[in-house]
Amino acid sequence: MKNLKSLTGCVFILLSSYAFTATAHEGKEHNEVHSEAVNEDVPALEWDGADYKKAEKLFRSAGGYGCVACHSQFAQGGGNVGGNIRDHSLGQINYALQNEPTMKLLNNALSPDDKKLLASYLKTLGQFKLVEWTIDGDSSYSKTSLDKGSASQLVISNKTFEPLTLSLEPLGNGGEITVEPYETKSYEWTTEPGVVRLQYRQNILDIDVR
User: Where's the Cytochrome c domain (predicted)?
Assistant: First the structure.
């Protein structure tokens, strides 16, 4: 599967449905509490289908301000306060929206169907093995391992002041991807056995597929 996609994140401080530690946007830790929220199952969406695109649009615009500040463009966290919420359940979403002070306004802006659609969206993203690569202008080396035949998503964050262009040939695609300054983009593919090296100047990412 080969597809270039640029997404925007969504503001959810999503917490475990049973026992979890909540962290407010101000960084203050709260005591462990228990949720009685039911984790209603929702289906994953067809990748890049009509429902997926509808969910993506909602993910970008929920509450009128989007959610990238807390969870980054692909719900992977990206080092932001909200953390990785890929594959979080409807029960986790509902609990956070109803109990996290910073989330209550968003709760009122979302219908029950909106919440189910967002849960399906996160479930869809959660089906991909995530590989994050941040390029900030300094020399860097990263290595990760994946199983062969895995649906995977490479998330590239450009933290420099100039556009960067990367060849996708090592991933089995003769094309390339251009990421603008302080933009994040993704590339989706299915892994094949071998060691893949991606390089931009002095930034290197090795992906060991077994």
Answer: 50-126
